[in-house]
Amino acid sequence: MSAIETRLTDLGISLPDAAAPAANYVPYVRTGNQLFISGQLPMDAGKIAFTGKLGGDVSVEDGKAAAKTCAINLLAQAKAATGNLDKVVRLVKIVGFVNSTAEFTDQPQVINGASDFLVDAMGDAGRHARSAVSAASLPFGAAVEIEAIFEIED
Q1: What's the rounded Cα separation, in Å, for the pair 5 and 68?
Q2: What is the pLDDT at residue 22?
Q3: In angstroms, what CA-CA distances link 140 with 20, 34, 133, 145?
Q4: Binning pLDDT at 50, 70 and 90, where does residue 31 land?
Q5: Beta-carbon contacts of residue 146 (< 8 Å; ≥ 6 apart)
Q6: How far apart are CA 54 and CA 98, in angstroms?
Q7: 60 with 19: CB under 8 angstroms?
Q8: How far apart are alpha carbons 110 and 113 in whole angstroms?
Q9: Spatial distance between the Cα atoms of 94 and 36, rounded to a whole number of angstroms
């Protein structure tokens, strides 16, 4: 078990199987020592766990939970891509998309749900650059979508 998976166990989290793409794209691309993970939705047990708009029918707390679920799915994809999370050197960047109303301005607070979790799971290697932006809508009505770039060992 990798160090990250040991931390996840301590946090009471087990990684799901990596989700298959929902359209004509691949879930990740590895080039050199970088791993690009396609946008992950808040999927849990094969279903979108959080749908709707922040600033509308979704609370900030539920948005943060959705972002955390996306981050769990990012790690699942990283494991699928590398075969072992010990090959992950660090998280470089995440980009978080928040399905929100035009008036909603707390996108950074929502994406903190992912950022805080990733630091808990990865320690200092989980500290990352990021963007947190609003989206008028997201696939399948998801509340949040997050993509990532990891540095990995060869």
Answers
A1: 16
A2: 85
A3: 15, 29, 18, 11
A4: very high
A5: 39, 40, 67, 70, 71, 74, 94, 95, 96, 97, 111, 114
A6: 7
A7: no
A8: 6
A9: 10
- Tens of pLDDT, residue by residue over 61-89, are 999 999 999 999 999 999 999 999 999 99
Residue with tokens 């979790």: 117
Which residue type does 76 have? A
Q: What are phi and psi of 16, to 5 degrees?
A: -75, 170
127-144 pLDDT per residue, tens:
999 999 999 999 999 999
Residues 11 and 94: their CA atoms lie apart, in Å, by 21
Residue matched to tokens 């279903």:
47
Answering whether pTM is above 0.90, one says yes
- Our measurement of the distance from residue 111's CA atom to the centroid of its chain's CA atoms, rounded to an integer in Å, reads 9
How far apart, in whole angstroms, are the C-alpha atoms of residue 14 and residue 106?
29
Which residue type is seen at 134?
Answer: S
CA distance 86 to 150: 12
d(CA 63, CA 86): 29
